[in-house]
Write a structure and sequence with these properties.
three-stranded antiparallel sheet, elongated, single chain, 14% strand, 3 helices, 65 residues, alpha+beta, Factor Xa Inhibitor
Length: 65
Amino acid sequence: MPKVKTNKSAKKRFKISGTGKISRLKQNRGHLLSKKPTKQKRRLAEPAEVTGADAKKVKRLLGKR
């Protein structure tokens, strides 16, 4: 039986918690930050949870079941 390889781009973008939840960073935090309100930038800095069918796909990419 061959080994399942981890997708390296997914490995850099997602983290799995001890309880099995998958966290991700939010979009719109890369550049052009001077025109965005401070409140918005603070909100975007918090990690979000991957839910539903997307979580299943991400776990597959990370080599988890």
